[in-house]
Amino acid sequence: MKMKNKTGSGGSLWINPVLDKEFRLRMRTPRSFIALLSYVLILGLLAIGFIYVSMGFQSQQSGMRFDPSVSRILFYVLSIAQLVLIAFMTPALTAGVISGEREKQTLNILLTTQQSSSAIVLSKLASSLAFMVLIVLATLPVYSIVFLYGGISPSQLMLVFLFYLFTMLLLGAIGIMCSTLFKRTIMAVIMTYGITLVIFVVTGVAYLLLYAVVQQSYYSGSVPPKYSWVGFILGLNPVGALISIFEPNISKQAFLVNSGNLQDDAPIALWLQFLLVYAVAIVAALWVAIRRIRPVRRNRHADDSDNALNVGDKGVSEGEVAEMKPTRTPEN
């Protein structure tokens, strides 16, 4: 006997035909295999190139061998490079999931099913993120190069992968929101990449500029404050939050914590601020996507009021015409 998972008339939230179809069709296209191969190949070539360059710099002192102390730097380079690749691929996978259905004229058919708006949006998001998780897990053999030389614990690698998952969820939620707000896929992709550019680049550039300005006036006073507000800008940048996971002291340097007292700490860790702020952004983006995927339901009350006004106007006009017509008396 087959068990059916249902939650009322909307179907199950996680096991539903939309999610099942996405999982079945996602890996059946050659584009998925090409994307997976290209991703792992780029990251692998980056690791091999870094090792080759490091061996070239150290060949005169210690011979042609890789210094194990450089493995930690290799881990940082691989982690930041993979974060950039995630920022490049995730919007492309999520920005067209709803607008693509609209362009293929299949969205109306999908909305007439028993699936709720939340089930459709979350299923599309889960299928896209599942493919990204598969790609990230496929890079574990590349990270095994770092473990050969030591310097990195498995707990640090696990924290980095959890950070990747949160970043993918953030960019995926933004992509789903833009896909529901814009009817054309090209516009949704452009807006998603624009927001991603603001998160990754604009916040970093703004921090560097403001850091240089604040630093000059920070130490000019006789009694500098305990910390500066400029660190909150870096907390919005994924690269800064990722580095703070590796080096906790980066948070103190970002906030310009007064070094007079060694016990003083940053008001908040950069990675913690990143999680708190963008967790709210994820919920807001998904809420907008769920609300905007069914525009008919949103305008139903307005349509009913317009119809009532039209009927009332029609009744008034007919009454006026009836009063203007002369009454006929019956002939004897």
TrEMBL record:
Q: Where is this region: Disordered?
A: 302-332
Q: Which residues form a coiled coil?
A: none
Q: Does the entry feature the keyword Transmembrane, yes or no? A: yes
UniProt keywords (A-Z) are: Membrane, Transmembrane, Transmembrane helix
Q: Please list every transmembrane segment annotated in the UniProt record, as residue ranges.
A: 33-53, 73-94, 129-149, 161-182, 188-214, 266-290
| UniProt key word Metal-binding | no
Q: Which PANTHER family does the UniProt entry name for this protein?
A: ABC TRANSPORTER PERMEASE, HYPOTHETICAL MEMBRANE PROTEIN, CONSERVED
Q: What is this protein called?
A: ABC transporter permease
Say which species the protein is native to.
Saccharibacillus endophyticus
Question: What is this organism's lineage?
Answer: Bacteria, Bacillati, Bacillota, Bacilli, Bacillales
